[in-house]
Structure formats: C-alpha cells, structure tokens
Amino acid sequence: MRIAVIGSGYVGLVSGACLADFGHEVTCVDVAVDKIEALKAGRMPIYEPGLDQLVASNVRAGRLHFTTDLTSPVAEADVVFIAVGTPARHRDGHADLAYVYAAAAEVAKAVKGFTVVATKSTVPVGTGDEVERIIRSTNPHADVAVVSNPEFLREGAAIKDFKLPDRIVVGLEDERAREVMTEVYRPLYLNAAPVTFTERRTAELTKYAANAFLAMKITFINEMADLCEKVGADVQGVARGIGLDNRIGSKFLNPGPGYGGSCFPKDTLALVKTAQDHDSPLRLVEITVAINEQRKRNMARRVISACGGDVRGKTIGILGLTFKPNTDDMRDAPSIAIIQALQDAGAIIQAHDPEGMDSAREHMDHVAFMNGPYDVAKAAHALVIVTEWESFRALDFDRLRGAMADPLLVDLRNVYRRSQVARHGFRYVSIGRPGQEIPIAMLNAAE
Asked: Any idea where the domains of the chain sit in the sequence?
C-alpha cells in the first residue's frame, strides 16, 4: 500500500519505518527542513534503540522516503496518517490541536481519490469529527474516511510494540475504511495481533483511558511505597504479591520518583480537562496528577534528609536524567524537578545520562554534565540514581567510594539491595523498603 505519514517526530518516524518494514511504500513528511535533511542523511532526530538501522534498511530498499512537500505523497496515498504533536496548552492544560488541524487542511488540498485519513496523534474525544469537518470544508469534493488509530508505543521499546502489539484500535464511522485499515495491518496476522474496530470517539477515548490507568497504577505503588516505609514493609514484596494476581498484573508496579515523559503528564491533564468540560470530573485522575507533581520535589527532600537536612554548598551527583531508560526524552522528567529543588536548597549538581545530556541542557541550568558515573561521584556528598539505565546496574562501589566526599547512595529506582552496597561502606537509602537510613521523623520534618 502507499502510505503518507504527516509528522516525523517520535510516533510518525517509528510508525513510518515499521510500516515500510512491513512492505508498504511509505513517505514521511515534516515541515522541519533540518529534520528531513538529517533523516535523508541517516541521522535520527530522536534516540530509540534500533531505529537508525530500521530506517536505513528501508531507505536502501526504496520503501521509505522523506520530504517536506506533502502534495505528491498525499495525492498518491491509500492511507494518510496524521502523527503530529499535541502538546499541552500552557494556558489551560488542554491538548493543543493546532498542528492536527493544520495538517488536516493541507491533506484536504492534496488528496485525490478515496483515501483513509487516520489520526495517530493522541487527540481528545471529538477531534476526528473536527478533522472531517475541516477536510470537507477545505475540499468539498474530497472522498475521505477519517478514522482514529491511536498509538500505544513505549519509548525505548517502540519498534517491538509496533510489530508485536497487544492490540490495534481503529475507530471509524465509514465502513469503507475497515478493509483499508485491515490491509495496513495484515502483515501482523501471523502474530495474531488483535485488531479492534469501534466507533471513532471510542477509539479516541481509549488512548487517554489507557494512559490514565497506567499513570494511576504508578502513583498507587508510589503511595504504597511511602506506607511501607512507615510500617516496616517492603514495597517490592507487596508489588510482587499483588502483581501475580492476573487481574492486576505486574507491569507499572515499580516504585520511583514519579512518572514523566511525552505521554502520561500531558494525556492525564488533557483527560482531566475534557472530563471537566463535559461536567463529568475524573477525581481519581485529578488526584493522580497532583500526587505525581508533588512526589518529584518530595524526592529532593528525601535526598536532603539523607544528607542530614542540609545540602547547601554540598555536591550532589545525579545518575540518569531522562524520564526512563533507552530514550533521550527529557519531557516532564522527574530529574528536572528534583534538580531544581536541590539547587533551590543550595546544592551543587553534577550529572550524567547515557543519551539525554544534550536534551537536558535545554531544561536545566547550572548543572555540570559529566562523562560518566565515576566523574559524577568526584567529591560528591551523595550519589542519586534517578533513571535506571543498565549502565548504572553494576557500579564499582569501591571506586565510587574512593572518589566521593561522603559514601551515600540514594537509590530512587531500587536498583540495588542494601547488602550489596553496605559491604562497601556506603549508607543506602531506597524507596519503600524497611530500615531506611533516614529516621522517619527527620523525613517527615523535611517534607
């Protein structure tokens, strides 16, 4: 099939490359000239494991193309995917649909013959209706079927998620689109990937509901971790005990400093605003958003407490800056709030991230970016694991201790066990485990 993908960011580029790998002829379109030129030269605008090889192989095979001009790709396409950004609007938290609507208008001008226009961007309920209205008002002769086909990709595992999906959701109002979208995903037939066809508005809401539920699950285990510390229980044992219940499942039950990234923060907020606009408030999601924001700065207070209640003039080493491993994405990363709070308390910050330091420079000031964990440890009064990159899972603690001013590890991802680090002379603080080094009264006072 001939496919045009409007938007060559994270979702558009991964989707386009995977669709080309299925054997479709795909053209990725973006208005950013520098991005398209970089892609033509084989340089990726994002870090995603395996994406550079996937793009290169399909470009060589002649199935994947890049351009800034959508006219010809859209005119020739059987399916046009809209995969542009929908960031949160600063003034009210609603999803900003300006890019989606602009793309719809441009598609309307170029489309020829029957074409399915699929929104892959994460959009609020009713966006498909407006996209269809824009197309028909811009080009009354356009023969299109507008569908919702939300993405469910995890950064760091996006290629696997696209090729081995849990489900494919397609929302449509025009039955002609069913056969076309079935053909798009036909290569996944052998993987038995379930394709769920539903109404367009249902598909749009499904994406938001999924992300909100996962955000609540993360927030739940984080609050359970706090309770575990108070009562002397181990949150990882609790997580395993409840995760073995197949009604709950074990995923997203790892305690930490709060969720971040390109999806959960903006999607939970957009869902809250949509619900409020329809006089059907989602109290659970509202409190999830509030708790998560508070938790990030609370993690900084945990570090301050571990340092005796005062970090003024002290050097704090930060390991991991991105919101999760295997990405360079710094959007709403917990590290941003944690570092800002530590700096507000007078700390000197030095940090390292395997992939995210270039992006981090755009989000934080007065941070010394180091070449590796052992450089971060030099003269540090505490070392804080914020993101659980694999390269941080087997640190040489004797080497770290020799470099540090004070052998203190604050492990916000529970990468290690106390016994592993204590035998090297470290004090150790983690999340939701019994016997923390920080007296409960001191932690309460700091918070």
From this structure: 2-198, 290-446
**Residue 228: active-site member:** no
Residue 440's pLDDT is 37
Alpha carbon of residue 230 to chain centroid: 31
List pLDDT tens digits, range 190-235. Answer: 777 889 999 999 999 999 999 999 999 999 999 999 999 999 999 9
**How confident is the model over 353-384, as pLDDT tens digits?**
999 999 999 999 999 999 999 999 999 999 99
Q: How buried is residue 335: exposed, middle or buried, by Cβ count under 10 Å (0-12/13-18/19+)?
A: buried
- Identified catalytic residue from 18, 228, 263, 307: 263
Query: Measuring CA to CA, which residue among 160, 94, 147, 96 is closest to residue 119?
Result: 147
Over residues 76-86, mean pLDDT: 97
Which ranges of 7-50 does DSSP label H, i.e. alpha helix?
10-21, 33-40
- Return the C-alpha torsion angle 328, 329, 334, 338, nearest 10: 60
Sheet containing 408-411: order of strands: 367-369, 348-352, 315-319, 382-385, 408-411, 427-429
Task: Let me know: does 29 contact 4? Beta carbons within 8 Å.
Answer: yes
CATH of domain 2-198: 3.40.50.720
Coil, helix or strand at residue 37: helix
- Mean pLDDT for the stretch of residues 148-176: 96
CA distances from 308 to 151, 302, 334, 407, 441 (A): 45, 10, 22, 13, 12
Q: What is the DSSP letter of 380?
A: -
How would residue 132 be classed by pLDDT, with cut points 50, 70 and 90? very high
Q: CA dihedral defined by 311, 313, 317, 322, rounded to 10 degrees?
A: 80
Q: How many Cα atoms occupy the beta-carbon half-sphere of 304 within 13 Å? A: 27
Q: Say which CATH class 290-446 falls into.
A: alpha beta
Answer yes or no: same fold for 2-198 and 290-446: yes
| Type and span of the H or E element at 71 | helix 71-76
> What is the rounded CA–CA span in Å between residue 375 and residue 384?
13
Q: Which amino acid does the sequence have at 96? A: D
What is the rounded distance in angstroms from the CA atom of residue 152 to the CA atom of residue 381?
A: 41
**Spatial separation of the C-alpha atoms in residues 186 and 104, rounded to whole Å:** 26
Q: How many Å is the maximal CA-CA distance in the chain?
A: 75
Q: Please report which confidence band the pLDDT of residue 447 belongs to, taking 50, 70 and 90 as the band edges.
A: very low
Label residue 378 exposed, middle or buried (CB < 10 Å: 0-12, 13-18, 19+): middle
pTM of the entire structure? 0.91
> Token digits for 115?
């074409």
